[in-house]
Amino acid sequence: MPQSENRLLNALPQNVFAALVPHLKTASLAFGEVIAETDQFVSNVYFPHHCVVSLVVEMEVGDPIETAMVGRDGVANATSALDGKIALHRGVVQVTGDASVISSDALRSIANDFEPLRSILMRHEQVLLAQAQQSAACYASHTAESRMCRWLLRIRDLTRSDNLKLTQEFLAQMLGVRRTTVTLVGGTLQRAGLIRQRRGGIEIVDAEAMENAACECYARVRSNYERLFSPASD
Amino acid sequence: MPRYYFHLENGRILHDDVGCELRDMAAAQNEVLRVSGELMRSGPASIASLWKGTSWRVWVTDKPNGEGKTFFTLHFSAEI
Predict the structure, then answer these.
(1) From the list B6, B14, B42, which residue is nearest A144 (CB)?
(2) B18:A168 CB<8 A
(3) Which of B6, B15, B39, B59 to probe the A interface (max A CBs under 10 A)?
């Protein structure tokens, strides 16, 4: 049996994980819950099991736009344990599910004692930054179709389900396009047999065709995350 | 605020059944330009028909599924 449903926690040596266990609590995070508010103190760190958290930037005018997504292969708010105690973005739960939660103070103290934990948290921050950079480039140059495929495949990986519970409004915010565009582009992808749209959700019908239609950012971000868990990087 | 529904014909018809609440007609015109722009660069599955000579139409109504009164229509076509 794995140590944890979260892949970062699962990748830790047994003694490090054992030091964390007394401080870890399992919490259920609900859609829409805010776990980090821009410019506010962060007191908890979340290691998602099945939930997915979006890191978004809010604009004075217009909808918030997603810059990165954190799920079971990542951790949200971990910079607070590395002394970045103020959140520089907003963290919103976009798929309901469980996460292991630990206070920033406890995580910081254990990270000071155990190098492998410090190391994976640092490397994760690097991957997160790379993801945000990829998203900026993706937003500027990739099409709504390919970005929608990229985004849906990533959610599928993180939730391990073909049935994605998300609304078109939410998807539009995440992609930085109008809700109407999501409806019309989604309609095109449905006609092409890639997805099925229903009330409150989208079903992935042909994941292989979606991988072909997705922009390069999907594979790039995925391989950056895989690198966190590959022995060569240790 | 009135609700506007945006529909697309690009060889096939895609109806909007959700709509957007917008302040007024000017806001709806602004919205249709933005959506049209996003659709124009939305990718091969969406755009293929335009370059094969099919004219596109994006139109805005006051009822879902392309019904009701049409406020305005934008036409796009490519001559090669």
Answers:
(1) B42
(2) yes
(3) B39
Quick check: helix, strand or coil at residue A213?
A: helix
SS3 A133: helix
DSSP helix/strand/coil, A165:
coil
User: Min CA distance, B79 vs chain A (Å)?
Assistant: 23
Q: Residue with structure tokens 């970062």?
A: A8
DSSP 8-state code for residue A21: G
Any A CB within 8 A of B28 CB: no
Mean pLDDT of A83-112: 92
Question: If we measure between CA atoms, which residue out of A234, A181, A185 comes closest to residue A213?
Answer: A185
d(CA A112, CA B23): 55
- Look up the ipTM and state it: 0.85
Q: What is the largest CA-CA distance in chain A?
A: 55
A29-39 pLDDT, tens digit each: 999 999 999 99
Residue with tokens 């630990």: A102
Q: Which residue has the tokens 């790379």?
A: A130
For residue A135, what is the enclosing H or E element?
helix A115-141
Determine the distance in angstroms separating the CA of A217 from the nearest CA of chain B, rounded to an integer: 15
Signed CA dihedral, B39, B40, B44, B50: sign only: positive
3-state SS, residue A175? helix
The predicted model scores a pTM of: 0.88
Does A230 contact chain B (CB < 8 Å)? no
Contact of A41 with A35, CB cutoff 8 Å: no
